[in-house]
Q: What sequence folds into this?
DNA sequence: GTCTATAGTTCGATAGAC
DNA sequence: GTCTATCGAACTATAGAC
């Protein structure tokens, strides 16, 4: 559960104490949402997990939904940066997709708590926040779909339905957050490597 | 949303009226749970969706959780029968896994509303009910893992990690329930066929 | 078997002392 | 900035009339 939810903060800004408290609340909310879901979590649950009174929550966040939104925003931005960074590692579609899948999948295992909340609590966001998150999601999906279609057009991949195959690749990574166990047999990196192989097989026809 | 949640009932049993009401309540609960989640759904939501008063719900089901359990049980049994039936179609692992994936995936698309509830609301079940559902799940997972390992041992598949590959195959089907849209470009059967192909590619190494 | 009415609890969020 | 105390609403489930 050691998943950092804080943004990097310059030291000695004077608001360091407040940032720590906000971070502790985000961590508490993340663990609560992951365990019982957004609607199954009360503000008292979050306050207890953070070692504070229910009233203290509202000094730092206006509503319970605001906590979910900040978590969703942080998680989606992390994923976007991981995918962008991996895609920039090469100009070859096959090497790009391998890097993306390895890191995307490993992230969903390593940060399975946040990944679960990010992937499955979106309907609990208010319409404004949901749209902001959906925009980031569409960017991530488009980036992966682009790699598949570019590789298919270049003859690097042999796929009959690039758009559906891109969805399948996303599904593999996303669902790792559901079944991954910290005390399981495989590390996040091992899962990422194996899934990278499986993905390249999906993208290349047998002879 | 035309997803039948009722068990087949012999006509003219005398309790036909009661069965219809129970079925309407299950349908209402299913749609509500799928839209807002179990904890986000009130018994008034379910009653409204079924065209009844909140009190009428409790004549047919003891608690809100009982409704979720009956839905989960029905959904999991449907999946188990689909997987068992598909596996019985052949003795060749490659044909077995193709049939299983085609039908498993198509089911998750066609019954995406139930699939979503079945796959993601398990933590809301009470411990007794959760264990009963988990037993069915383990059977389904074991059945698919068995096909993969049998095929690997027979040299029919070439996989470095059969257990993880079996999880990947399950993930592909499960996550279809998240992204499938009834007004989308592909039918459940089309998705099933494509996913059957992708799965066979994953199970066979390139030369 | 279904209704209206409501009991008893818990919820999200706020007031005001310190 | 954190606390105790609490408001008003919404919740699950039940009581009792019909």
A:
């Amino acid at each position: 559960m050691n998943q950092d939810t804080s943004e990097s903060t310059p030291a000695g800004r004077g608001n360091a104490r407040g940032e720590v408290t906000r971070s502790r609340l985000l961590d508490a909310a993340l663990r609560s949402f992951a365990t019982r879901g957004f609607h199954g979590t009360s503000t008292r649950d979050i306050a207890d997990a953070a070692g504070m009174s229910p009233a203290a929550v509202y000094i730092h966040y206006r509503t319970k939904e605001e906590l979910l939104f900040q978590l969703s925003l942080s998680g989606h931005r992390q994923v976007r940066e991981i995918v962008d960074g991996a895609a920039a590692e090469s100009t070859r579609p096959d090497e790009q997709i391998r890097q993306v899948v390895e890191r995307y999948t490993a992230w969903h295992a390593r940060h399975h708590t946040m990944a679960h909340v990010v992937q499955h609590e979106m309907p609990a966001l208010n319409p404004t926040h949901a749209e902001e998150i959906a925009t980031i999601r569409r960017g991530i999906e488009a980036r992966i779909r682009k790699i598949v279609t570019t590789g298919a057009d270049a003859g690097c991949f042999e796929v009959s339905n690039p758009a559906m195959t891109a969805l399948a690749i996303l599904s593999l990574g996303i669902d790792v957050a559901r079944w991954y166990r910290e005390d399981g047999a495989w590390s996040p990196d091992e899962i990422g490597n194996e899934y990278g192989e499986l993905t390249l097989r999906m993208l290349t026809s047998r002879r």
Observations:
- Residues 7-14 of chain A have pLDDT under 50 and may be disordered.
- The interface with chain B takes residues 35-40, 119-120, 123-124, 160-161, 163-165, 167-168, 170-172, 174-176, 178-179, 185-186, 191, 194-195, 197-198, 201-202, 204-207 of chain A (CB under 8 Å).
- The radius of gyration of chain A is 19 Å.
- The CA atoms of residues 117 and 152 of chain A lie 33 Å apart.
